[in-house]
Amino acid sequence: MGGSTSSPAPRTATAAALAILSQLCGAALLYAILKAEGTWHVAGLLALLGLGFYLLERFPWIGDFVTASLARVPLVTMATAAVIVLGFPFLVGTNTYVLHLLIVAQLYAVLALALNFQLGSANIPNFATGASYGIGAYVSALLALNLGMSFWLTLPIAALAATLFGFIIGIPSMRTRDTYLALVTIAFGVVVQQLLNNLDWTGGPNGLVGIPAPSLFGHSFASPLQVFGWTLPSQANFYYLAAALVVVAIVTAQRLHGSRIGLAWNALRADEIAAKAQGINVAWYKVLAFAVDAFLAAFAGTIYAFYVSYISPDNFTFLVSVTIMTMVIVGGMDNIFGVIVGAFLLTILPEKLRAFSDYRLLFFGVVVIGFLMIRPQGLFPQRLRHYGGHR
Amino acid sequence: MAELLIQQSVNWITLGSIYALLAIGFSLIFGILNVIHFSHGDVAMTAPFIALAAAQILAASFGAFAPAWLVLAVIAAVLAVGMIGVVLDRVVIRRFRDAPAMMALVATVALGIVIRELIRHLYPQGSNPHAFPRLVSGVAFDIAGVPVNWFVLLVVGTTALLVALLFVFLRMTPLGLRIRAASEDRLVARMMGIRDHRVFQATFFIASSIGAIAGLLFASYAGVTRFDFGVMAGLLGFSAAVIGGLGSMPGAIIGGLVIAGIEVLAQTFVEDGASYRLVFVFVLVIVVLVFRPAGLLGRTTMEKV
After folding, report:
1. N or C: which end of chain A has fewer CB within 10 A?
2. Which residues in chain B are contacts of A368 at CB distance < 8 A?
3. Considering only residues 293 to 332 of chain A, which have any Cβ-Cβ distance to chain B shorter than 8 Å?
């Protein structure tokens, strides 16, 4: 695995065809899973998914070849991805439940990518992503409700507030490590959640109600979206907004991964003392990881608050942070694509298990434990870094 | 004022003892496996349910509900929970002992979810709170007009006895020696002919039974038990173990007393402190760990040379 240099380089035409085909297959599978109803239907698709992952594991060159193809024709890849993402709501049509699932999955993908900077790149535990998410949601909601600020103005303010929070959590990380640091982040998460639950001006356990829908160029996000004569349900507005955020998160993640910062985080993960000896400012990069995580999580929180228009402390508990962490681990640490797949799987699958609605949480726990035992490296393990010209 | 102070001190000692018992379990398991068993709180809180079920079965098969059944049920619950700990170690936790710390943490959090959901589904009307009787009732004596219940004495006495027994066990018995050897260096212990599987089994049995006793005392103190009490029990016990210094028994006891102390102080002296008690507890946890990164009695080590 990872040694993709030995696999044959695909020719441009093959690569383009494969890039389009593989992404269409992925989209079709996602669509089938989203539309699936009934136990057998879901079980069949799960089996298909399992078979797919088995094949990828058994024949690693398939994955390498597809990845190489995608990288060979970046324009085709991106164009296909854009068409798929933009066109999906038209395919889904008026099924608002599916759109809702997709929005939530995309927000979780952003959260998982945010956490990935720490857990994946630098191996710093953080059980407070849910808290940053909550701070983003509450700050923007409070600004909108009390000061009448618009969504677009609250977005950067909420992100700033959460980043400040990220810096504050980051400070103990200079001194504590591993399990102790995990407890510090858990403690921050509990403190934030308890404060939201008890303070008067955050609405206490009832939360905040009636957050106004954002609008853009006079188009309110609460009204249906009309494009080229097509009418999409109002959820489509938020779908595109969340998709834009996912793109921002992916670009941020890729840029950071390729920069000295990403390299420094990887050095921290490999060996903290060696990194220190190489002249890497360990404390600064650790704090930075917390700040970046909080920044992105706050964006997701703001969109969530304006999307559901009702937030309560229950949306931002310790369990939410654990779920985000599970998404990163299941998807594959430090693998952007894997993390997104993990977020989508863990958001959509529990919803598909409505058949055993009461046993959903139990099933979730069993699956997570089983997964960690059978495939601890995640669905898509991290790849080796490429240096220099050959690609 | 003096009465309030005495009353709150009594509460502090009671709650502190229960937290200390929970923390000891976390510390023992961490010391030997280097794994945080985050579901330890949930394992502990299965004990009240098992005891209630056992008492009802006994009452149903042998007639009226008698105190004797309660005692038997409590003993059965403690032993059963010890076995649950051994089984969980065997099936799940042991597999994570060489994995990165985060894997073990997430896996045991998921295990906690599974345990809670199992209680909820397997116990009749498991979603509802169930009343749990005071194990002993009545007032033992007065301190300056403040009555001290037998229950308080039971909690403090049990804790003191268990701590003493654990100390004697770890210091003076062959099995205790093996546990200490394995927690110091598992590989060397194996080379000395110590079967580490046995050691893990024994550790998990002891830690889980002590946890079960803490769970029973906690349910009895609160008067009720619920399937999701384990979350808070786990978080508070884990915090106590960590701020005391993981792996250190005296640390676990001090940690339990500190956590209970701040909780009682917040409830007594802060307006609306009962709702904010967790905020105070976890702010304290953060402060302690910032100034003592390895806990109060833990040693800071720089690994690798």
Report:
1. C
2. 106-107, 110
3. 318-319, 322, 325-326, 329
Question: What's the gap between Cα A161 and its chain centre?
Answer: 20
Cα separation, A324 vs A329, whole angstroms: 9
Tell me the pTM: 0.87
Predicted ipTM of the assembly: 0.85
Contact yes or no for B281/B262 (Cβ under 8 A): yes
**Helix B150-172 vs helix B249-269: crossing angle, to nearest 10:** 160
pLDDT at A92: 78
Residue A9 and residue A337: Cα distance in Å, rounded?
Answer: 21
* β-sheet bridge partners, residue B143: B146
Asked if A196 contacts A313 with a C-beta cutoff of 8 angstroms, the reply is: yes
Residue A361's closest CA among B68, B256, B118?
B118
What angle (nearest 5°) sits at the alpha carbon of residue B299, between those of residues A126 and B215? 65
Q: Are A347 and A112 in contact (CB under 8 A)?
A: no
Choice between B297 and A155, residue whose per-residue pLDDT is larger: A155
**Backbone φ, ψ for residue B145 (5° rounding):** 85, -5
Neighbours of B156 (CB within 10 A): 16
CB-based contact A295:A163 (threshold 8 Å)? yes
Beta bridge mates, A226: A231
Nearest to B282 among A123, A190, A362 (CB): A190
Low-confidence residues of chain A: pLDDT under 70: 1-10, 218, 354-356, 386-391
Q: How far is CA B222 from CA A122, A213, B116, B134, B153, in A?
A: 42, 44, 19, 9, 16
Residue A341 to residues A252, A360, A381, B151, B153: CA-CA distances in angstroms?
18, 20, 12, 53, 55
Q: What would the pLDDT profile of A273-290 be if each residue is shown by its tens digit?
A: 888 888 888 889 989 999
A275 contacts chain B (CB < 8 A): no
Q: DSSP for A293-358?
A: HHHHHHHHHHHHHHHHSEE-GGGGSHHHHHHHHHHHHHH-TT-HHHHHHHHHHHHHHHHHGGGGGG
Q: Which residues of B touch A186 (CB under 8 A)?
A: 235, 282
Q: Which of A271, A359, A372 sits opposite B103 (nearest CB)?
A: A372
